[in-house]
């Protein structure tokens, strides 16, 4: 039963209810071959549930899931040929790294020699071929994460599913592993769906970003399309647009603190934007710049500024450049 | 069992009262056993301290005393069989309780743990009266049932604790990698539970092997266990034969402790008894 | 298997029993013997439990429990013709109702430390226990061991109108209780109490003094001046056994002068067969009473009132004596 | 795992529990062998009106409570010191505290004969040091029974308290001290209330074990120290009084449950106070 | 025994050895009254040990500690009148919020009514007077943190010690609580020592920043002094100066990615700085800007840029403005 589209994974009006809770609510989604799609959203928005339905651990209460063009809605997980990396990694503690990576091949009845070769290949890809004899508990968090990835990749899955693979790592390691993940996905070319609640991670890695809000898709598209143009207040808030205000002629708009200019009270207003008077209520030093909290005619506005002449209590002029102001459908 | 964090107190503080109480506790727990060891090597014929001379003759006497040898065999057999059955029945039950999304799982779990709160003599009496006298089940059969019931809570609780610690995603990961439910059980669930099973087995074996109340009530032709034989010997005669047996059992216990330490961590297994 | 019997006996001296009785019997008759051990009460209880399908063929058991078993229909009468040695034994050992005979007997006397009670006269007087001089230094049998019933009867006799005067017995034992360190629950327990010096005197059976006396311990056993009672151990055929003839063969073997002599030498079971030899150690402890107790003034107890009242007496003893 | 499979996995265990435990336990009360119906209740009523039996019940309760109190008094400090120790010996000391649980009660109790006998270690020490010529009778007393039971159940008390204490963050004690609480105030206001659940578990286990123990009272006590367990054994194996044995079993169980319930209640009150 | 200085806490050559490890190694420190001093440094550098010695949980193996001018070196913790907030909060789980806050007063024998009043006051300060009847487990992480603070403040301590009070909170809450902490410290005026490994936190809150390196003070001073002028490579790395290179005439220097300009290869070099040719090896999209990794004559240089015309592989010109380049003592 092939369907028309060439998406590797396609969700058609998929819903999942737990009793009264609609964890996922009519989601349509296409994941093109070879791409990396990020599912993004705040806690409880349905990211994990969506991923688990694609993997087959959970079944939709409505809608259909297609994998490689075939209807996989009711298929058992072991029949889907999907590689999944769990948030907790779920490495088998009783098996060595090599046996963990070879597990999926072994249960498929692949020959011993072939298993060894492909496990080694997968471990090379994640840069861990040296550690193949170790047990999971003898590895650092980052290494465990890479073994989980190698294990998922070794079966040459149609799709790779990653559920917050980096959230257990500390900040420094997270940044490092993010780059590593990007490289591996690029080199292996496997279609990938990544769940995260970290917008930076999604911006950096994804070809397609899908932002979920209470089980529904709030906005989807390429990060460079979405980031400068959030479709609504939910998405804007989620992407760190801290300021929401109404500008004459433009209605409700949002703008990032970095794009708000703080100018002397006197002096001419620049072109290509709107200017409003305000008072500095607080300045917080952040090293490279300071975060300035302003009272602008009743609105609280945050601006990032590095001018050392600003002081709490000063009256200033704020400037909102037209090309940085994003109008929102209220 | 984890430590509650590193040193919290100025190093100079001393706790004389606590230390004295703790020393008393260790003396009471271990002191009498040390005297037993000394007495076992006496060449005299009564248990007096200090021992009169040195000899190994009581070990020889113990080794040639039939009821002890028979009792040892019976105890080992019953303990092994009861442990195996309790695990064979308890592990599936544990799986059902922890992974089965059953309604009322707390009730089921408590049911499996319930024999632990019943005095062993009462359990023994119930089985003796109803199964042996009432239904004519053989003494060895009832003994085995009784010991199995006695161990079931340990089997369920210890393997359950181990299962509760295991990440449920492990089984999902195996399924995702292409393993069916049965393969997943034997390749992942069981190996992951191995330390818990080992712990339950050691704990169960020791509990059964040492049990007196149940074994005493249920003893019948050919079913006198070693502790019962020892108890009866001590009641009727005060020569140091039992001290010699005690030393042997003490050494066996040390071996068990060392093996348990290697397997899972001795403190972890037996530390769980009281919690 | 065709010729195999199970013999239930006491749980001490099993090794010697095996050598002196079991193995020679197996050799002589080709009948295999399985031995089972335990105390009187336990074994009788199990016999009762398994009444419908007996697992035991011959029961060696003390006289009271034998009488109880007879009353409960657990034992079978024996065919005198199948047990020719019956004619060789003392009359007190024979059953008047045709049940199994006694094969040995035990005498109640005072077991004491000679360094504790230096005057043998005092040791031979039951009343010495009461006089307070040995408060906390005496042991007295509980009702469970054989000596318990004997001592109750002896007390009744010494202070009252005879062994049946238990009212007198109980009230005097109640008075004795405060002097008692321990009411011993199994007969052999008392030897170690004495040996370790926990007590200096205890009413006890003669046979348990033998090893101590032989080892040269400062311990002796005295025949009481008044209140001489003895108990017997009987050999009974279990009712419903499928091996009755073999069981009777075993009993006859047990009563033979040769086996009785060897048993007396090996584990001090005093013979009832008049032709058997009594070793010197036994006469050293108990004198002539070891040979012919009736001639020495010992009598067995009348089992009828005991069987009728014992449960009640056990209860009473626990309440009025041993818990005080 | 489907619900049907889960139920199938439970079947063998449930069957064993039902026929090897629950049914016999209930039948023991309803219908002991050779006994008219309701006789157990009748016997129970008799026992509760009998001063002799009441004496035995009271002794059982008393010994159980004393043993529990002593075990907590001695076990808590051990558990506390072990839970707070950073010494490399603490693992060994913990193992030593737990180790006796591997040993048969018979073996453990046997040692007291050597210690408490009239020629035992204590008596010889007393006479040897010239303290007294007539050492007090120690064996076959309630004290001996208590000592033996304390030895048996101390490990259990230690382990229960330890598992509770080692779960209490050491920082909480730091915090209390920093806020100005002395050591005793810290113990009273922070440690004790938080360790209460473990102490309650320990107390319950120790009482249940001590009040129903058989081996120790039979070896170290005498007929004057009769406890319910010995009475149960006498009824079932000496006088073959099934209804009496069943009634004592019920009494014993009720006692254990009553004390367990009471200590849980007291523990809760203490913690919420 | 008063000493001359008017610092509320003074450490004089304080060391703490654990066996062979010198956790703290000859630290001199003065904490002026009413100030907020931040102890900063990587894991294991001795921050907690220093704080615990000030509180009295640990004793120096050498040196002296003065509190309020008196030698407190050997004093028990309960005698120091110090308020401490632990990283894990260490709230008493069996006591209500009000009883937690009142604990220090209760053990001082303060009257019931007075305890209630002062506990309420402290809870008002942290904005939690509503929750006084709750148990700690019924509070969110941020609320627990504030209760811990109220408990420490309620005893009116001479010094408030905070050991990474925010590190258990998630990013959003951390930022929020940081502002809250600043307010409370300002309003209460209590001399405060804050341990953190988060440079942003220190920059934002501290009057004095003390950076520790393996138990020794690496640099100390006001954040606005230290941040633009790290004294050595250790401090620079710690403060996020990612680039280290040698510039002709200036020796070893460091510069932040934000201050490196990426210009077209052709075109004139601006004044007031040095220019070097380079190749872009990687561009990572970060939303507002991209992180550009460059190969500059063998040195790997990171620059933050928002020019959409940059591409991986392009040859460009990098520019290092003189006023942003910080020379380091190598
Ligand atoms: N097995 C379940 N039973 C009941 N409700 C569930 C179940 N699984 C998930 N939910 C609910 O469904 C919603 C979505 O959960 P899901 O785990 O998919 O969220 P998420 O986006 O992954 O969140 P997080 O970022 O916290 O992991 C939540 O409200 C959750 O409570
Ligand atoms: N009780 C102790 N015994 C032995 N070494 C210790 C002890 N306490 C601390 N140390 C060691 O002293 C050094 C400093 O520890 P400290 O806890 O002060 O570091 P820290 O700066 O607070 O680190 P973190 O940021 O990880 O909390 C570390 O090497 C640590 O291992
Ligand atoms: N949790 C084990 C406790 C062992 C003590 N025995 C108590 C007897 C009641 N079964
Ligand atoms: Mg999730
Ligand atoms: Mg620290």
TrEMBL record, chains A, E:
Listed GO CC annotations: ATP-binding cassette (ABC) transporter complex
Domain ABC transporter: 9-239
Pfam families: ABC_tran, TOBE_2
Keyword Cell division among UniProt keywords: no
Matching PROSITE patterns: ABC_TRANSPORTER_1 (PS00211), ABC_TRANSPORTER_2 (PS50893)
Superkingdom of the organism of origin: Bacteria
PANTHER family: SPERMIDINE/PUTRESCINE IMPORT ATP-BINDING PROTEIN POTA, SPERMIDINE_PUTRESCINE IMPORT ATP-BINDING PROTEIN POTA
Keywords: ATP-binding, Nucleotide-binding, Transport
Name the UniProt record assigns to this protein: ABC-type quaternary amine transporter
Annotated source species: Planotetraspora kaengkrachanensis
Class of enzymatic activity (EC top level): translocase
GO molecular function, one term: ATP binding
Entry EC number(s): 7.6.2.9
From TrEMBL, chain B:
InterPro entries, per database record: MetI-like (IPR000515), MetI-like_sf (IPR035906)
One Pfam family in the UniProt entry: BPD_transp_1
Recorded topology in the membrane: Multi-pass membrane protein
Keyword Membrane: yes
Predominant location category: membrane
GO biological process: one example: transmembrane transport
Keyword match Amino-acid biosynthesis: no
Domain ABC transmembrane type-1 stretches: 72-260
Location of this chain's protein in the cell: Cell inner membrane; Cell membrane
Spans through the membrane: 20-41, 76-98, 110-128, 134-156, 197-218, 238-260
Keywords: Cell inner membrane, Cell membrane, Membrane, Transmembrane, Transmembrane helix, Transport
Protein family according to the UniProt entry: Belongs to the binding-protein-dependent transport system permease family.
Protein name as it appears in the record: ABC transporter permease
Organism: Planotetraspora kaengkrachanensis
TrEMBL record, chain D:
Boundaries of every ABC transmembrane type-1 domain copy: 57-261
Membrane-spanning ranges: 61-82, 89-107, 144-168, 189-214, 242-266
Domain of life: Bacteria
InterPro entries hit by this protein: MetI-like, MetI-like_sf
Subcellular location: Cell membrane
Protein keywords: Cell membrane, Membrane, Transmembrane, Transmembrane helix, Transport
Major place of residence: membrane
Membrane topology: Multi-pass membrane protein
Pfam families, A to Z: BPD_transp_1
Gene Ontology CC terms, in alphabetical order: plasma membrane
GO aspect biological process, one term: transmembrane transport
Family as reported in the entry's similarity comment: Belongs to the binding-protein-dependent transport system permease family. CysTW subfamily.
Protein name: Spermidine/putrescine ABC transporter permease
């Amino acid at each position: 039963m092939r369907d028309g589209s060439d998406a590797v994974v396609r969700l058609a009006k998929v819903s999942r209810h737990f009793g009264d809770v609609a964890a996922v609510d009519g989601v349509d989604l296409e994941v093109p071959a070879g791409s990396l799609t990020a599912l993004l959203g705040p806690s409880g928005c349905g990211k994990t549930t969506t991923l688990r339905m694609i993997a087959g651990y959970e079944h939709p209460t409505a809608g259909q899931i297609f994998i490689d063009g075939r209807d996989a809605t009711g298929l058992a997980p072991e029949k889907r040929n999907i590689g999944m990396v769990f948030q907790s990694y779920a490495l088998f503690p009783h098996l060595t790294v090599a046996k963990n990576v070879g597990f999926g091949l072994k249960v498929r009845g692949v020959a011993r020699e072939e298993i060894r070769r492909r496990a080694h290949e997968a471990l090379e890809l994640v840069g861990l071929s040296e550690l193949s004899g170790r047990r999971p508990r003898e590895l650092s968090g980052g290494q465990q994460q890479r073994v989980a990835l190698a294990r998922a990749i070794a079966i040459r899955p149609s799709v790779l599913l990653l559920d917050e693979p980096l959230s257990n790592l500390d900040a420094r390691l997270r940044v490092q592993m993010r780059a590593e993940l990007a490289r591996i996905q690029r080199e292996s070319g496997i279609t990938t769906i990544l769940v995260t609640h970290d917008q930076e991670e999604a911006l950096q890695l994804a070809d397609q970003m899908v932002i979920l809000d209470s089980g529904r898709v709030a906005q989807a598209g390429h990060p460079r399309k979405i980031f400068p143009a959030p479709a609504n207040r939910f998405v804007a808030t989620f992407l760190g647009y801290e300021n929401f205000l109404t500008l004459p002629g433009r209605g409700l708009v949002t703008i990032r603190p970095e794009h708000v200019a703080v100018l002397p009270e006197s002096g001419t207003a620049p072109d290509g934007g709107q200017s409003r008077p305000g008072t500095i209520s607080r300045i917080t030093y952040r090293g490279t710049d300071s975060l300035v909290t302003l009272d602008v005619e009743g609105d609280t506005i945050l601006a990032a500024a590095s001018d050392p002449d600003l002081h709490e209590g000063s009256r200033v002029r704020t400037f909102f450049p037209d090309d940085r102001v994003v109008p929102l459908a209220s | 069992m984890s430590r509650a964090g590193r040193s919290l107190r100025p190093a100079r503080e001393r706790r004389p009262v606590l230390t004295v109480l703790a020393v008393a506790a260790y003396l009471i727990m271990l002191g009498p056993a040390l005297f037993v060891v000394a007495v076992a090597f006496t060449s005299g014929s009564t248990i007096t301290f200090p021992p009169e001379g040195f000899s190994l003759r009581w070990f020889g006497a113990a080794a040639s005393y039939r009821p002890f040898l028979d009792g040892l065999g019976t105890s080992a057999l019953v303990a092994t069989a009861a442990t195996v059955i309790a695990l064979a029945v308890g592990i599936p039950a544990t799986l059902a309780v922890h992974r089965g999304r059953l309604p009322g799982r707390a009730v089921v779990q408590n049911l499996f743990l319930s024999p632990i709160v019943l005095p062993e003599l009462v359990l023994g009496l119930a089985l003796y009266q109803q199964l042996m006298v009432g239904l004519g089940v053989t003494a060895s059969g009832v003994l085995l049932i009784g010991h199995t019931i006695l161990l079931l809570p340990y089997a369920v609780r210890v393997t359950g604790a181990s299962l509760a610690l295991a990440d449920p995603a492990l089984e999902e990961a195996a399924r995702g990698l292409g393993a069916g439910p049965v393969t997943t059980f034997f390749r992942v669930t069981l190996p992951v539970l191995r330390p818990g099973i080992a712990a339950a087995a050691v704990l169960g074996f020791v509990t059964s092997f040492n049990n007196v109340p149940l074994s005493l009530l249920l003893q019948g032709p050919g079913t006198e266990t070693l502790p019962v034989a020892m108890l009866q010997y001590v009641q009727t005669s005060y020569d140091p034969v039992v001290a010699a047996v005690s030393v042997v059992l003490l050494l066996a216990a040390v071996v068990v402790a060392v093996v348990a330490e290697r397997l899972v961590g001795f403190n972890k297994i037996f530390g769980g008894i009281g919690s | 298997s065709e010729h195999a019997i199970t013999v239930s006996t006491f749980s001490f001296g099993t090794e010697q029993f095996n050598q002196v009785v079991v193995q020679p019997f197996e050799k002589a008759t080709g009948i295999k013997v399985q031995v089972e051990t335990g105390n009187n009460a336990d074994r009788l209880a199990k016999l009762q439990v398994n009444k419908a399908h007996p697992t035991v063929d011959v029961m060696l058991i003390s006289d009271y429990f034998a009488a109880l078993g007879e009353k409960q229909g657990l034992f079978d009468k024996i065919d005198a013709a199948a047990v020719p040695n019956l004619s060789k034994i003392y009359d007190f050992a024979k059953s008047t109702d045709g049940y199994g005979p006694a094969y040995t007997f035990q005498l109640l006397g005072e077991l004491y430390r000679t360094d504790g009670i230096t005057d043998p006269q005092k040791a031979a007087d039951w009343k010495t226990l009461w006089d307070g001089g040995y408060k906390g230094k005496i042991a007295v049998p509980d009702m469970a061991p054989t000596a318990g019933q004997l001592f109750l009867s002896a007390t009744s006799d010494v202070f009252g109108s005879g062994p049946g005067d238990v009212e007198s017995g109980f009230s005097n034992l109640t008075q004795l209780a405060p002097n008692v360190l321990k009411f011993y629950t199994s007969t052999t327990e008392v030897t170690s109490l004495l040996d370790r010096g926990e007590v200096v005197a205890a009413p006890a059976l003669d046979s348990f003094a033998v090893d101590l006396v032989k080892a040269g311990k400062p311990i002796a056993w005295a025949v009481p001046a008044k209140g001489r009672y003895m108990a017997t151990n009987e050999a009974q055929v279990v009712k419903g056994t499928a091996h009755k003839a073999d069981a009777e063969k075993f009993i006859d073997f047990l009563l033979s002068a040769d086996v009785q002599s060897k048993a007396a030498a090996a584990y001090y079971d005093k013979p009832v067969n008049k032709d058997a030899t009594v070793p010197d150690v036994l006469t050293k402890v108990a004198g002539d009473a070891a040979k012919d107790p009736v001639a020495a003034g010992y009598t067995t107890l009348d089992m009828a009132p005991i069987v009728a009242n014992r449960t009640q007496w056990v209860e009473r003893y626990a309440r009025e004596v041993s818990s005080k | 795992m489907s619900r049907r499979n889960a139920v199938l996995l439970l079947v063998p265990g449930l069957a064993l529990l039902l026929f090897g435990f629950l049914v016999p336990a209930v039948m023991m009360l309803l219908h002991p062998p050779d006994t008219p119906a309701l006789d157990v209740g009748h016997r129970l009523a008799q026992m509760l009106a009998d001063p002799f039996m009441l004496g035995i019940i009271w002794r059982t309760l008393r010994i159980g409570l004393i043993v529990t109190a002593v075990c907590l008094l001695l076990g808590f400090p051990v558990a506390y010191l072990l839970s707070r120790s950073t010494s490399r010996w603490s693992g060994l000391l913990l193992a030593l505290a737990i180790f006796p649980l591997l040993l048969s009660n018979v073996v453990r109790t046997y040692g007291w004969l050597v210690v408490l006998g009239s020629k035992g270690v204590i008596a010889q020490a007393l006479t040897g040091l010239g303290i007294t010529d007539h050492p007090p009778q120690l064996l076959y007393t309630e004290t001996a029974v208590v000592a033996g039971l304390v030895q048996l159940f101390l490990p259990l008390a230690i382990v229960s308290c330890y598992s509770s204490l080692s779960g209490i963050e050491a920082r909480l004690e730091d915090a209390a001290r920093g806020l100005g609480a002395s050591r005793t105030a810290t113990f009273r206001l922070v440690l004790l209330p938080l360790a209460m659940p473990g102490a309650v578990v320990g107390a319950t286990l120790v009482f249940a074990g001590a009040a129903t123990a058989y081996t120790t009272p039979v070896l170290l006590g005498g007929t004057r120290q009769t406890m319910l367990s010995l009475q149960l054994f006498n009824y079932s194996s000496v006088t073959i009084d099934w209804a009496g044995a069943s009634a004592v079993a019920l009494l014993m169980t009720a006692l254990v449950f009553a004390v367990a319930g009471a200590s849980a209640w007291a523990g809760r009150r203490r913690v919420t106070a």
